[in-house]
Amino acid sequence: xxxxxxxxxxxxxxxxxxxxxxxxxxxxxxxxxxxxxxxxxxxxxxxxxxxxxxxxxxxxxxxxxxxxxxxxxxxxxxxxxxxxxxxxxxxxxxxxxxxxxxxxxxxxxxxxxxxxxxxxxxxxxxxxxxxxxxxxxxxxxxxxxxxxxxxxxxxxxxxxxxxxxxxxxxxxxxxxxxxxxxxxxxxxxxxxxxxxxxxxxxxxxxxxxxxxxxxxxxxxxxxxxxxxxxxxxxx
Length: 235
Prior knowledge:
It is built from 3 helices and 14 strands. The protein has helices at 80-83, 127-132, 139-145; strands at 2-8, 21-28, 43-49, 75-78, 92-97, 108-115, 123-125, 148-155, 165-168, 178-183, 190-198, 205-211, 214-217, 225-232. It is elongated, with a radius of gyration of 19 Å.
């Protein structure tokens, strides 16, 4: 299990605070869990794609307008077993189309930002991610198919110059209610817990997963805040 710790400076208007956080501590406590036992397994399935880009901003993970900007727009909705009650939000997968005439060997890497309710496909991809599986000049051909056979596996997320971050939701109210989104989780981690405390205090209050990547609490400490985030480590 991994622990991340942040400090968040609390302003008068909490609703205006976005990603005002700084990674101040990180340490590894233990590796893996039963959930991660098959992180390296290659799975066989099918994928489709979103016809409308607007669907990307209304995903079940709660990333909102940030979602289309993740990973260069290479994002996806995963079936319930991958969404994992929201713990799968932010997970990265390499997906390769099995049509050798149309598709490249490298495929594409996607970030899970939504829940896919269609049991015919494990993923529904953004059109950008879907066409990225194709060989050069074959993007329109793969779009015409609509659904393709694929193989996929979990891979580490790499956000390059971005650290794990916290974004405060506009619904938050000073000293009454706090809701946050956890963004840019690197590696092969799944966020399984979050806590908040006043800076300098050892008295932590648990946050509850509201849905997707959104966590909340009505027990909001006064003053500047620090966060502690727990995550399972992939193998």
